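Lab notebook page, bench 4
Experiment: in silico fold of construct C2
Operator: M.H.
Input chain length: 148 residues
Purpose: comparison with the prior construct
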Amino acid sequence: MGTVLKGISRVRWHELTHAYGSAQDVPGRLSRVAWGDARTSVDALSDLALWLGELAVFDATVAAVPFLWDLAATNDVAARPGVIELLEAILDHDNPPRPDVQYAAHRAVLGGRHVVDALADDEDPAVRAAARDLVAAIDRHACETCRP
């Protein structure tokens, strides 16, 4: 997994926010998803879902999406289906007071289309199912903020 989470230390997480405040703990949770056992990975992903995508999207969401794509594409990550589901949740949610953040978060998810297309043929049936759901979400995405 040499390149998973590459560049994570260059992000100024302490200057970003998520649903509950400072995003300084996001890199630690991403690392737990990447290298934790199944339970650790799922627990960390649950935190990330609450912080980054289940309620709304935030500037930390935008910064985290490229790392989520890395995790989704890495076979050794225990919670890959959940990572893909989080990417879909990010695409489905908004940030009404910050349309610029919503737009950037959605564009970051939409920009991973090539990754999810490959994952739709993954050997893991749970990854395949989650990927196919995300492909469908991308295909039907038409929020006000992202419309031309």
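Observations: Strands lie at 17-18, 21-22. The radius of gyration is 14 Å.
Next step: discuss at group meeting.
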